[in-house]
């Protein structure tokens, strides 16, 4: 998807019109800005509060400035913006919005728009949670050569309901923490790699994930079944490479149980990724999905069973990939690609509202946010998030409160870190990742920081921002002058960065 830039005006009296200018990478910032900074030089970083709506900044064609805007609201925010030399330009009341759901970067999934399998799966599981309480299933024990039948969610029908297919599974590995099963149509390559997966799960993934997030709770604390089957991803017809579903933790015979639940702690992996992918692909998928199992089993304990919000659950699962060695530096690059997609078009993504994100997901954004939390406050916070009674933003806020912080400020700091990390513009540790570099090289690939969209004066209009989102602008003046920037209509936070 080609990102849409913010819009520019050819003259003060004109209407706003869309343009598809490519974003500017922090490698360049445009020559004037980079030259004023030098090679990784410092800049003036001014923190903007929501009430601060009138700014002045000295600009020239060779000396632009950077503006980062963020909103930590649960709903979309409409920001009125005036950017001019004398401050006399007024926003056009009927001007088209410069961004937001359905316009900036295309529509969210909404009615009738296809959603990714992961998003559909979480919706099915969520509906189960709303209807029923939980009684976790008992773990099963098998030995090599044993067989069993399993229901697998292969795809979704035209109405968005799950399409289940039954497969025969055969145990090829029985270890300390898992059993690995193949469906009857798997070949020798899937079998050899299935053995590798079982050994990796026992020797590394189980220990790493449980150290970070805690042990699976209740009966789910027994062995985990790993099923390799062609039905995951619908025989290669879609991009799904693995999943976990809550329905397996409810015995079919229990009240509220699903007739197609497999009544065990279970993870599903696509035969395609096992046979054709690289080790980081299928092993990283195991680490990712096992976090989901741990999270669900712990959240579903107690008198009021519940599930973690999708965005935070997925952020923790993406972090599990990195912690196990299948992250940014992994040869396969699955996590790298998600991070790069977010950094290229940050204004298209909401951290929390996945229904309005491209393809119904924001894996790169949530990975970066959870990584920032772990870097700044310690990895112990992740285990607390999984075990807490709260979910979503309330969960994060409660954990931050015990550390003398709050979500609004930390979210703004994270927005700043995505712009400043690796550039040398500030030495403030709040704007720095300790474990990753957003302008660093990872194998043959390199991240180039967050993209910024050009905004040239004079300009006026509305900017619709998604919940918990950020927009990065390169303020450009057509002449040497003091420019005025007026923001109104919504409580936004941000940064103004100018050369020293």
Structure report:
The protein has 500 residues and is α+β, with helices and mostly antiparallel strands. It folds into two domains: 1-9 and 22-107 and 331-500, no CATH class; 134-304, Zincin-like, CATH 3.30.2010. It is 29% helix and 21% strand. The strands form four sheets. It has a six-stranded mixed beta sheet with strand order 5-6-7-8-10-9. The protein has a five-stranded mixed beta sheet with strand order 1-17-3-15-13. Strands 2-16-4-14 form a four-stranded antiparallel beta sheet, with no helix packed on it. α3 (188-213) crosses α5. The chain is elongated. The protein starts with 30 loop residues before the first helix and ends with a strand. Mean pLDDT is 80; it is low at 1-39 and 90-114.
Q: Brief overview, please?
A:
By secondary structure, this protein is α+β, with helices and mostly antiparallel strands. It contains eleven helices and 17 strands.
Question: How would you summarize the topology of this molecule?
Answer:
Blueprint: H1 31-37, E1 43-48, E2 54-59, E3 65-71, E4 77-84, H2 117-131, E5 147-156, E6 162-174, E7 178-183, H3 188-213, E8 224-229, E9 242-243, E10 266-270, H4 271-276, H5 279-299, H6 310-323, H7 334-344, H8 363-377, H9 380-387, H10 392-401, H11 407-420, E11 441-442, E12 445-446, E13 453-456, E14 459-465, E15 469-476, E16 481-488, E17 493-499
Parallel strand pairs: 7-8, 8-10, 13-15
Antiparallel strand pairs: 1-17, 2-16, 3-15, 3-17, 4-14, 4-16, 5-6, 6-7, 9-10, 11-12
């Amino acid at each position: 998807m080609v990102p849409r830039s913010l819009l520019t005006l050819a003259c003060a009296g004109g209407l706003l019109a869309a343009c598809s200018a490519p974003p500017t990478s922090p490698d360049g910032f445009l020559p004037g800005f980079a030259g004023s900074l030098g090679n990784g030089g410092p800049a003036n970083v001014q923190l903007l509060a929501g009430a601060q709506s009138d700014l002045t900044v000295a600009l020239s064609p060779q000396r632009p400035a950077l503006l980062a805007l963020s909103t930590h609201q649960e709903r979309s925010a409409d920001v009125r913006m005036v950017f001019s030399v004398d401050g006399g330009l007024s926003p056009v009341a009927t001007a088209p919005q410069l961004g937001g759901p359905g316009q900036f970067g295309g529509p969210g999934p909404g009615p009738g728009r296809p959603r990714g399998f992961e998003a559909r799966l979480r919706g099915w599981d969520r509906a189960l949670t709303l209807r029923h309480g939980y009684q976790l299933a008992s773990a099963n024990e098998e030995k090599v050569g044993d067989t069993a039948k399993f229901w697998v969610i292969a795809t979704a029908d035209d109405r968005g309901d799950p399409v289940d297919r039954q497969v025969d599974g055969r145990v090829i590995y029985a270890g300390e923490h898992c059993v690995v099963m193949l469906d009857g149509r798997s070949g020798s390559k899937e079998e050899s790699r299935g053995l590798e997966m079982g050994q990796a799960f026992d020797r590394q993934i189980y220990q790493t994930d449980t150290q970070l997030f805690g042990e699976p709770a209740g009966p789910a604390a027994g062995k985990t079944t790993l099923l390799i089957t062609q039905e995951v991803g619908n025989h290669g017809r879609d991009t799904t490479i693995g999943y976990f579903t809550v329905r397996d933790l409810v015995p079919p015979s229990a009240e509220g149980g699903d007739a197609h639940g497999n009544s065990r702690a279970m993870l599903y992996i696509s035969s395609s990724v096992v046979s054709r992918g690289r080790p980081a692909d299928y092993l990283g998928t195991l680490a990712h999905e096992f976090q989901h199992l741990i999270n669900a089993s712990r959240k579903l304990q107690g008198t009021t069973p519940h599930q973690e919000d999708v965005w935070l659950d997925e952020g923790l699962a993406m972090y599990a990939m990195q912690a196990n060695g299948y992250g940014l530096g992994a040869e396969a690059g699955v996590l790298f690609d998600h991070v790069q997609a977010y950094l290229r078009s940050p204004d298209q993504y909401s951290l929390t509202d996945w229904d309005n994100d491209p393809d119904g997901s924001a894996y790169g954004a949530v990975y970066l946010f959870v990584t920032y939390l772990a870097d700044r406050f310690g990895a112990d916070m992740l285990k607390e998030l999984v075990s807490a009674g709260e979910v979503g933003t309330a969960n994060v806020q409660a954990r931050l409160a015990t550390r003398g912080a709050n979500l609004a400020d930390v979210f703004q700091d994270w927005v700043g870190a995505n712009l400043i990390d690796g550039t040398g513009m500030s030495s403030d540790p709040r704007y720095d990742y300790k474990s990753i570099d957003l302008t660093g090289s990872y194998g043959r690939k390199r991240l180039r920081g967050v993209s910024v969209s050009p905004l040239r004066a004079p300009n006026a209009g509305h900017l619709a921002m998604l919940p918990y989102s950020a927009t990065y602008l390169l303020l450009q003046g057509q002449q040497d002058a003091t420019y005025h920037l007026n923001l109104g209509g919504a409580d936004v936070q941000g940064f103004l960065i100018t050369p020293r």
